[in-house]
Amino acid sequence: MRKIYEAFAFLVVCSVFFLDTINANATTLQQLGVQKTEEGFRTIFFLKGELPEKVNTKTRPTVRVQFTKFEVLPSIKPDEILTTSIIKEVKFKTGKKGTITITIADPKAHVEYIVLPTIPPKPGTYRLIFDIIPSGYVIPVEEPTSLKTKQEEKIKPEENVVSERQWKVKTVQKEATTKAAEIEAIPFDEYIFREAEAAFQRRYFNKALVLYNSYLQRNKLAHRKQVLLHRAMAYYELHKEEWHKYGFEMIQLFEEALKETGNISEVARIQCIIASLYRRLGVVNRAEKIINTLMSKSLPSEVLGCIWKEIGLIKLAKQQPVEAISSLYKALSQQITTGERAEIHYTIGKILVETGAYKEALYHLNNAMELEPTIYQKTPDIIKQIGTALFGMRKFKSAQRMLIWYLNLKPDSKEKDLLWAQIAECFYQQNKLKLAERLQNHVMVEMPDTEGAYIIMLRRAQML
Q1: Does pLDDT of 348 surpass 70?
Q2: What superkingdom heads the lineage (predicted)?
Q3: Contact 176, 188 (CB under 8 A)
Q4: If residue 29 lies in a helix (H) or strand (E), which one and from where to where?
Q5: How far apart, in whole angstroms, are the C-alpha atoms of residue 166 and residue 430?
Q6: Is residue 95 a contact partner of residue 69, using CB atoms and an 8 Å limit?
Q7: Residues 250-295: tens digit of each pLDDT
Q8: Is the peptide bond before 411 cis (omega within 30 degrees of 0)?
């Protein structure tokens, strides 16, 4: 099972990390090194170009890596660097179907490998890392606190850490110069966790998901709570615009994270997201039940902001606009992010436009635009709502400009016939009669049997 997992993990990680780096050039070995770990030895190959065609760890005492085409910088001398008590020999075969062959002194040694980006990431470059563990080494059964203990040991005076962990790796640059480098010896599982967290913080959610799943498949307990939560958040961020397609999968991942999370605020925040997903998926009663349960608890302001916002949106889904606005105002009084505040102002403004309170609506819509100037890029509807509010206030020149802007953003809008009719009316009210007439004719010819065409016909009848 472990061998199957190794092959699967390699293929998945490769497919996510390096699809954009693969090209027809030869793979070049640019740098290599070895370090002593607690279990055995780690060899690191810094490569540029295509990924390996095949990595075979089953033919021990040799481990073979095959490439479509392989080259080695002439200044690299593997015997000076890689020969250890475990690694007997390293050979390179260059050219087409080139290989790296590692001969291990212990034929029963356990070998693990992983492919990771370089640090810092560079286009077309990656690290191929092997951990070689002697057959005599007993792999300890990991307890939930074991890794924490290891981490506490690392927080000793810095000079001790350096003296115990220091190792040198020969660096070969394009100019054939060399320099020394130091890499901290940490377990593979910790390696994967750190890479996943770095990807999550940089919002590389696809990469983070692959690494979080890889960590969980290793059945490690040290970071399990954080990994489950961040995996769910990464999946949510990656697919939140397609909630109608991935919503139930998001809920499943969040509920799995809930089983491991004990922090009250964290639990409430996750449940609020789950309620939001249920509401958008049309399961409004289930969403309302979750929110009512949360309201009975004492929670911090940032969580209450999410809850009151969700209550407002649930009321709106149940056709209760007055109650919805009241709840959304309560959300604005809590500690929420600027993006959430802008979204709430937009929602209130949209409700007020539909009820005909154009002046109040314009206040909230303008607030949303001031708080988040790029909100119209992900929510173009805000431009249409501003234009509609201005039209209702008889500010025809400004309304015309906003409605045309919206149609430039959404040329295939389902309401384009009605909006063009409103723009034609704006021209008419500004005494631009020829423009108004031409636009009205365009709507009646190109969009017959639509609401916009009927409005124009009625308007012309009134002017007779």
Answers
A1: yes
A2: Bacteria
A3: no
A4: strand 27-36
A5: 78
A6: yes
A7: 999 999 998 887 778 888 889 999 999 999 999 999 999 999 999 8
A8: no
Place of tokens 């115990």: 164
Respond yes or no on whether the N-terminal peptide bond of residue 61 is cis (omega within 30° of 0): yes
Q: What's the gap between Cα 371 and its chain centre?
A: 23
Q: Three-state DSSP class for 95? A: strand
Neighbouring residues of 137: CB distance < 8 A, sequence distance ≥ 6: 39, 40, 110
Q: Where are the domains of the chain?
A: 2-139
Kindly report, residue by residue over 60-110, the tens digit of the pLDDT.
788 889 998 999 988 787 765 565 667 888 888 999 989 998 888 888 888
User: For 402-419, how does the pLDDT look when each residue is reduced to its tens digit (9 = 90+)?
Assistant: 999 999 999 988 999 999
114 Cβ partners below 8 Å, 6+ apart?
Answer: 9, 10, 13, 129, 188, 191, 192
State which H helix or E strand residue 160 sits in. helix 158-165
Half-sphere exposure of 344 (CA within 13 A, CB side): 26
- Beta-strand ranges (E) seen in 335-423 are none
The helix-helix angle for 321-332 and 301-317 (nearest 10°) equals 170
2-139 is a CATH 2.60.40.3500 domain? yes
Rounded-to-integer distance, Cα 158 and Cα 101, Å: 37
